[in-house]
Amino acid sequence: MSSLRDAAMNSKAWPFEEARRVLKRYEKTPPAKGHVLFETGYGPSGLPHIGTFGEVQRTTMIRRAFELISDIPTRLVCFSDDLDGMRKVPDNVPNPGMLREHLQRPLTSVPDPFGEFDSFGDHNNAMLRRFLDTFGFEYEFISATDFYRSGRFDEVLLRCCERYDAIMAIMMASLREERQQTYSCFLPIHPETGRVLYVPMKHVDALRGEITFDDETGREWTLPVTGGRVKLQWKPDFGARWAALGVDFEMYGKDHSTNTPIYDGICKALGGRAPEHFTYELFLDEAGQKISKSKGNGLTIDEWLTYASTESLGYFMYQKPKTAKRMWWDVIPKAVDEYHQQLRAFADQDEAARLANPVWHIHGGQPPASDMVVSFAMLLNLASVAGARDKSGLWGFIRRYAPEATPEGNPQLDQAAEFAVRYFRDFVAPTRVFRAPTETERAAMADLAGRLAAWDGGLDAEALQSMVFAVGKAHGFEPLRDWFTALYEVLLGASQGPRFGGFIALYGVEETARLIERALKGEVVA
């Protein structure tokens, strides 16, 4: 075993902890199916969202960790529950009137309101696959419609007939008395209307593999459970799918956690082995409320990627998955800069530290070097004082600060400069509130401007920072944080800001002196 594998077997990084749990399943005998199967699920009633990204990204991190500690082959399956009935017409699609007549029909039997695919389910599946392909995920796609209709699910469905009473006992324990009267784990698809029916069973014939029920008009029907004529309710479907595929690992949000015993129980009742599961905490909006697709109160993938890179989102997803996190606009700059801090640290770390570094997991063990010679936070402040309308407005300052940097040679920095201008325009500029300095602050800032005018120390950020410190001390600021807060509020219109010596080095010594002079004249407030 290599030293890297040894380090991975002892790493406390959560993907390795989860990977070791999966490996423990096969410490005595290898999997009979010849591989370890990771799964993520998708409900195609709507477009893929940030939660979908998080599940696939995090599962991929665990899969890559597993591949380092084991030689057992792996697969990642993304399963789309597209045989589910369309319960309501989405708000964000064209031709909603056309869809209403197809309510409760399987999503793959509902016409595509966009007119691009054979069905609405096919449309959303295509969006999912395009979404996953954009991020370079390695996965196999399985459509529930194909899974049921092709016969791949038949063996387990017949077993559901044989063990109907055991499955129902598990479900009944979780249902209110009123729901118990009408519940069945089987959902027949009406032979004439094509609707998914939520009706009780009159009889389940285990020998023939058939169910008998009355439809909504009182007509009696008998259908085989095989061949896609019947689907399972979503909770039984979870456990039955695990049994049918031999799933070894699946993660889902905290809102599913109370269902875990149900999923596991049904999988075991059907002769399967329940997989390892990982329950992650949910994302919160600005007010600390759970993000909801229907409310639209959180960031979308497209919104994040308008202002920052995919890798920064991957970094955010890596951090403390079992802790609820605010996911709002203000987390983006921090995620970008922390991601690049970790990239820079990686080169000098030993094996153990590298395996604990988020960038190892974001990039599957092969992170790139960072070319961000200027932080994202600094670019935002530069955009603020420079009034930049595009990234070219920032590059003049960047080249003076770092003469070796170019858009071609520093593509990450070039991309970040464009993101910073957008972010400043949309989120920083509308919220800036400048104020006039107090008399004490005015005297200190005039002193600072005078020292900058006489400065001959070049663009040494640390030396400039020391000089700014000295001015604050000389004018009696206690604590010194109040001095820097004053600089941010008077010069940048914000209560927080960058390390000021670094800002001067980037913006320019003479330019900063002129900015202070303008602020003292009241021109910045105006």
What's this model, at a glance?
The chain is an alpha/beta fold.
Second-tier CATH architecture of the largest domain: 3-Layer(aba) Sandwich
Biggest sheet overview: 5 strands, parallel
Structural class: alpha/beta
Kindly state the percentage of residues in helix: 40-55%
Spatial strand order of the main sheet: 3-2-1-9-10
Return the average pLDDT rounded to an integer: 92
List segments where confidence is low: pLDDT < 50 over at least 5 consecutive residues.
Answer: none
- Number of spatially distinct domains: 4
C-alpha end-to-end distance: 67 Å
- Computed CA radius of gyration, to the nearest angstrom: 29 Å
Number of helices, counting only DSSP H or I runs of 4 residues or more: 24
Number of strands: 12
Q: Which overall shape is indicated by the principal axes computed on the Cα atoms?
A: elongated
Look up the CATH topology of the largest domain.
Rossmann fold
